């Protein structure tokens, strides 16, 4: 009984520490909260194989799984501390302080972190020691009156008869535990409301934004760009269905009114600082562009097409006096930094070579969703996201690849990563059971900034058959395709490959995502019955 209450006291202590720490983080920044800080540190140190496993198996829920895992481990640790504190209070305090130190160190080491980021974990640990003292003190063994003689000394006869040698303050424990739980809940609610007020202000500013008509609008999507085959998704991906792969445990909620972007660094003749309103007043372009994540396995879901509106990046860099290396510019890398400290490096030559690289303000006719980088993100056609698509942008620094390794480069990914020519079968689904007869085999293919020239399908390793391509929107978008298969009874393997407009045909060789994107033919096994 006493051990179980000890574990409960540890659990309450941990919950109190977290609630107060998260409340303190409101005054610092959300990333300074211990769960977010430790989670971020774990992400930074995650081996590539484990990262790929998480993305492959949990998809965009990988961060939720990590947070739940951290809370579960914290709960087990807290219960153990509560039990230890029954026998040796100083050891319990030491364990709490060590855990607080881990959270503080993780917060300080996060990108953009500083000494102040340690405050939430320190405050939480100090409070936890007080709560542990309060609860464990009520569970301390005290001699009972039945175990004392008339002179106040232990009664040997009572002990020999098996009478209770002592007890703890059950009523006091219940009162103290209830008070701690109530206070923790209050701190949690207060922290949530205070943090939510900032998010509400950011949401209000987003809701009030009206995107101007672009000076250079996207051309209408060709009528034949969407094939309308059952099981094949839309040509334009709705924002709610667009993939999200990043390291942010907490999606930044930024007030566009106070947002600023700084452009500086090597070869910048005229450093710039621009506001969101400054960008809205500039000449805007609108383009259909397909984005792809380098973590996308062959046949994977991390590719999507949207209509983006924003400011041409080359124009902004040119205004700052930046020249690409081909014209004598000293910087060959553009490092984009987000408000949460993420750093992504793009080749200066690429973003200034005439393609529609932009600082995007809108997506599918609306201001960017928070999940996808509001208020401003980078979009560069033809480059994987980890070397181009910085969300929640706040800083652009011109430097060189020799002088600086961006976040993912430090983790064994390539410095330069043009998107590879790939294709995917969307229907029929793996292990589907279509009926014999004509079965539409359909999907998408992409080779951004090159375009798709041909898609071919084969069955059971036989001859390749040319699929019918949908109308091409632009070379920066994916292209839908379909092949009418006369299916016969039995188990069959369908494979697809694409050829881009440069004449390159996908290789059959299967290669994983590291270091610069997966290769291989996507295949689907079906059972025709």
List the helices and strands and how they pair.
Elements: H1 2-28, H2 34-45, H3 48-58, H4 62-87, H5 89-109, H6 119-138, H7 156-160, H8 170-207, E1 260-265, E2 272-275, H9 276-280, E3 284-292, E4 303-312, H10 313-319, E5 333-338, E6 343-347, H11 348-351, E7 358-363, E8 366-367, E9 377-379, E10 393-399, E11 422-427, E12 437-446, E13 452-459, E14 465-466, E15 468-469, E16 479-487, E17 490-500, E18 522-528
Parallel strand pairs: 1-10
Antiparallel strand pairs: 1-2, 3-4, 4-7, 5-6, 5-10, 7-8, 7-9, 11-12, 12-16, 13-14, 13-17, 15-16, 17-18
Helix pairs in contact: 1-4, 1-6, 1-8, 2-4, 2-5, 4-5, 5-6, 6-8
- Rg from C-alpha positions? 30 Å
Distance between the termini: 61 Å
Give the overall average pLDDT. Answer: 92
Q: Strand pairing plus helix content: what structural class?
A: alpha+beta
| Record field, number of beta strands | 18
> Strand percentage, roughly?
15-25%
Strand order of the largest sheet: 2-1-10-5-6
What does this structure look like?
The protein is α+β, with helices and mostly antiparallel strands and 529 residues long. It has 11 helices and 18 strands. The chain has helices at 2-28, 34-45, 48-58, 62-87, 89-109, 119-138, 156-160, 170-207, 276-280, 313-319, 348-351; strands at residues 260-265, 272-275, 284-292, 303-312, 333-338, 343-347, 358-363, 366-367, 377-379, 393-399, 422-427, 437-446, 452-459, 465-466, 468-469, 479-487, 490-500, 522-528. The strands form 4 sheets. Strands 2-1-10-5-6 form a 5-stranded mixed beta sheet. Strands 3, 4, 7, 8 and 9 form a 5-stranded antiparallel beta sheet that branches. It has a 4-stranded antiparallel beta sheet with strand order 11-12-16-15, with no helix packed on it. Strand 1 (260-265) and strand 2 (272-275) form a beta hairpin. The radius of gyration is 30 Å and the shape is globular. Residues 156-164 have low confidence and may be disordered.
């Amino acid at each position: 009984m006493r051990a179980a209450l000890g574990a409960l006291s540890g659990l309450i202590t941990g919950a109190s520490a977290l609630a107060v720490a998260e409340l303190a983080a409101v005054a610092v920044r959300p990333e300074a909260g211990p769960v977010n800080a430790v989670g971020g540190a774990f992400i930074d140190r995650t081996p590539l194989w484990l990262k790929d496993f998480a993305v492959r198996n949990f998809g965009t829920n990988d961060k939720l799984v990590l947070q739940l895992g951290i809370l579960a481990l914290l709960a087990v640790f807290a219960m153990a501390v509560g039990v230890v504190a029954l026998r040796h209070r100083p050891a319990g305090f030491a364990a709490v302080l060590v855990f607080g130190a881990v959270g503080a160190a993780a917060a300080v080491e996060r990108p953009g972190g500083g000494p102040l980021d340690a405050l939430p974990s320190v405050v939480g640990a100090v409070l936890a020691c007080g709560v542990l003292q309060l609860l464990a003190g009520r569970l301390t063994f005290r001699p009972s009156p039945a175990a004392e003689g008339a002179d106040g000394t232990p009664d040997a006869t009572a002990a020999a008869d098996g009478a209770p040698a002592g007890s703890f303050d059950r009523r006091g424990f219940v009162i103290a535990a209830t008070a701690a739980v109530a206070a923790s809940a209050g701190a949690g609610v207060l922290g949530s409301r205070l943090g939510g007020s900032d998010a509400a202000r950011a949401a209000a500013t987003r809701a009030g934004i009206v995107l101007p008509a672009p000076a250079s609008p996207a051309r209408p999507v060709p009528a034949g760009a969407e094939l309308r085959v059952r099981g094949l998704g839309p040509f334009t991906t709705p924002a709610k269905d667009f993939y999200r792969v990043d390291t942010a445990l907490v999606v930044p909620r930024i007030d566009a009114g106070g947002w600023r972007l700084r452009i500086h660094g090597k070869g910048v003749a005229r450093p710039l600082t621009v506001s969101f309103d400054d960008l809205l007043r500039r000449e805007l372009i609108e383009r259909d562009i397909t984005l792809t994540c380098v973590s996308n396995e062959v046949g994977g879901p991390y590719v999507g097409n949207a209509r983006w509106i924003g400011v041409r990046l080359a124009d902004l860099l040119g205004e700052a006096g930046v020249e690409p290396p081909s014209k004598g510019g000293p910087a060959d890398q553009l490092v984009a930094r987000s408000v949460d400290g993420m750093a992504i490096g793009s080749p200066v030559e690429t973003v200034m070579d005439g393609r529609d690289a932009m600082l995007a303000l809108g997506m599918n006719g609306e201001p960017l969703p928070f999940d996808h980088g509001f208020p401003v993100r980078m979009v560069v056609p033809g480059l994987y996201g980890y070397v181009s698509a910085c969300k929640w942008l706040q800083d652009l620094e011109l430097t060189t690849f020799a002088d600086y390794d961006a976040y993912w480069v430090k983790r064994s990914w390539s410095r330069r990563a043009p998107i590879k020519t790939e294709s995917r079968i969307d229907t029929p689904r793996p292990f589907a059971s279509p009926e014999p007869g004509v079965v539409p085999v359909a999907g998408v293919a992409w080779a951004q900034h090159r375009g798709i020239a041909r898609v071919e399908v084969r069955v059971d390793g036989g001859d390749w058959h040319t699929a019918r391509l949908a109308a091409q929107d632009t070379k920066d978008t994916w292209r839908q395709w379909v092949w009418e298969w006369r299916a016969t009874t039995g188990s069959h393997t369908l494979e697809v490959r694409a050829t881009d407009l440069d004449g390159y045909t996908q290789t059959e060789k299967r290669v994983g995502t590291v270091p610069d994107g997966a290769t291989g033919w996507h295949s689907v096994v079906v059972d025709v019955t």
